[in-house]
Amino acid sequence: MSRALTKLGALVAAVALLFTTWSVTTDRRAEALEPFTGYLMAHFTGEHSNGEQIYLAHSRDGLRWTDLNNGAPVLLSTVGTRGVRDPALLRSPAGDRYWIIATDLRIASGTSWSDAANRGSTSLVVWESTDLVNWSAPRLLNVAAGISGAGDAWAPEAIYDPASGDYVVYWATNATLNGVKKHRIYYVRTRDFRSFTSPVLYIDRGAGQGIIDTQIIESPGSVGGYRFYRASADGHITIEGSNSVLGSWTTIGNLSHMGISNGTGGGNVVEGPMWMQFNGRNEWALWLDQYATSRGYMPITSTNLGSTRNFQTVTGYNLGVARKRHGSILNLTGAEESRVLAKWGTTAPFNRIQSYNFQDRYVRHADHDVRIDSNVSPAQDAQFRVVAGLAGSGTVSFQSVNYPGYYLRHSNYDFVLAADDGSATFKADSTFRQVAGLASSSWSSFQSYNFPDRYIRHYAYQLRLDPITNATERADATFRLTS
């Protein structure tokens, strides 16, 4: 091939690549201008084994929510403490990029709150996406490293600042300043969630009052007199207004008149204020986590944020099955909503796994051990969703109905119910090939993905992974999926 033709080919390829990139970017930017049709909530669920990971829920009306991904985590942190809390979900103004940032903290690992606050991670965990459904590997952003004596970096949030064309990332850090150690809000600026400016003090309530949870929402029409509104858990739930993200803020009031506080005012003690604007109208919900009574989030609504007296309580909301803890809500365009629901919205039916040679017995978990039993109570202990295999196509995995995110897996050839830890070993141990039943072809047997000479079988009613060599073992290794 001539050098001229080679150059011409390279030029054509470059133009094609440029056109493709421009088309994709243009499509994403067009999405940002579409009307919103739904809502996506990112949250964690609590301090249990897999509760401090990224969960998603979807709503059409902003009040009634459905857990996505069959109630299992959507993203698992494999960095830092290997757990995340308080996720914040945001979209770029162009609609071509998304980020999730979260606290790097896993209390379920045995860490005490004192250790976490005084000797914890000073990094945030970040995921990045161009389509809201395919996410990068998690990475750490050590935002609080420049704060003297920083003990942690908690409850991060981020907002695009139109005045500067970059993002303000803000969070709480426990550190000593002017002889007082407490949580204050700091911020950095970034354009890419990789490099960032030095941390700057953002909110300090004075005296000994700490502040951890704060979240800002933009009101483009400045309804109520301000472009931005800020809700903070600082003993009360304090509402402030400003016309710039980093400008001066005016205190509007708190929710003490509604019997709601963050502890100082007693009453219904809440945390984790989470803003949401209802699609297509000037009405906002402020979701509050009733952590003191373990009742989960409740919404209060307002059509004018210029006075806290405009808030009112709401009935008829439903948060789905999983308990929602401190998170954030993103309004979805129709295209975004379609992608999210196509990826995580299908709810797999549940099955029971019936033994071939003990047909009154079904596979069940009890204290995370796995066996076959009759008359299983509660019934959900014997209910599993048969989902696409975690380790390979054409295979299956068994996800617990009442412990979403937990799967049947073998460990030293014994079976347990365990939380998906994101590792390749876990995925392989919990993946099986469904084949014709070894004792009856109208039933099924389940061949191990990573030990193909072994099958799921019961022995003395306990579930095991064994090689199968005789008629008794073939019967023990034969099951039927029933409703």
UniProtKB/TrEMBL annotation:
- Quote the protein name from its UniProt record: Alpha-L-arabinofuranosidase B arabinose-binding domain-containing protein
Q: Which Pfam families match?
A: AbfB
Q: Which InterPro entries match?
A: AbfB_ABD (IPR007934), AbfB_ABD_sf (IPR036195), GH43_arabinanases (IPR050727), Glyco_hydro_beta-prop_sf (IPR023296)
Listed PANTHER family: ARABINAN ENDO-1,5-ALPHA-L-ARABINOSIDASE, ARABINAN ENDO-1,5-ALPHA-L-ARABINOSIDASE A-RELATED
GO molecular function, a single term: alpha-L-arabinofuranosidase activity
Q: Where is the Alpha-L-arabinofuranosidase B arabinose-binding domain?
A: 352-480
Tell me which Gene Ontology terms the entry assigns under biological process: L-arabinose metabolic process
